[in-house]
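Example record for the data management plan.
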Amino acid sequence: MRAVVLREPGPVENLELKDLPLPEPKPGWVRIAVKAFGLNRSELHTRLGLAEGVTFPRVPGIEAVGVVDHDPDGVLPPGQQVATMMGGMGRTFDGGYAEFTVVPRGQVIPFRSDLPWEVLGQVPETLQTAYGSLTTGLDLRKGQTLLIRGGTSALGFATASLAKDLGATVFATTRQQDRLEILREHGVDYPLRDDGDIAKVREIAPEGVDAALELVGTPTLPDTLKATRVHGTVCFTGMLSNQWMISDFYPIGYLPAGVRLTAYGGEADDLPASVLQRHLDRIAAGEATLGPAKVYAMTEIRQAHDDLEHNRTAGKLVVLTGRAEGAAP
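Corresponding structural encoding:
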């Protein structure tokens, strides 16, 4: 099979497309014929040497979509469409940047959809994180206001779509003026240009927003906290800035009085199969949007990673393995 191998942390040139033996699943594991995989900041962190517990060389990739190729226990039938994510993929064992991947059955989520693989490839990890951030992280309710700091990321678009379906009013930020309209086109009620002082959201929501999702990281977190009302909640989920540590953290001086700070990071079992299926069905019916995406071939993995690192595109970056001709079965 063909697979992308990261021989060691470093520049994009350390990503190499190689021929590897077909992996064999042991009991309790499943081999998936990968049709597409999304790129994530986590894999960028791995390539840059910022991730802990990774051994090299390694096939990266914390998510993939495809079909079951072999389940030695006979639980999942061959050809069943599935998504998989997290659980050590691309870190402690080889991940989704390959034509085939072998993962524990517990992190395999079955679904059925006629959407093209390049669309399906945008969904799993982004949806899991958006859903978990809104439910576990923020407990967002109908009628509340939500601020998304880093709105033109794939996670930002997915969160906006879920929040609108829930009945929330959505504010979302971008640093680029020409992306404000993209946010508006994808359902954001109040697109905001991020000039470092997003607490100006109080001009629209005088008491501050009910909930805020921090996707940029620690550099913008203090300003996001200031934009949130007393007894409102900020959920720290993303690190687009690649900065996640707070130096000399003094809670009383750092946190505005009465504003709650939480965090979210989930696994495959935090995304119920019913939630994944409903989201795919809504996309197919035109009731939900994923935001923009850019699609690459496996031979373009270095360009894809370079684009990810330098934030050249809005939305999700997806790679087709070459086994994904046409629509999903």
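Summary line stored alongside the record: Residues 235 and 262 are 5 Å apart (CA to CA).
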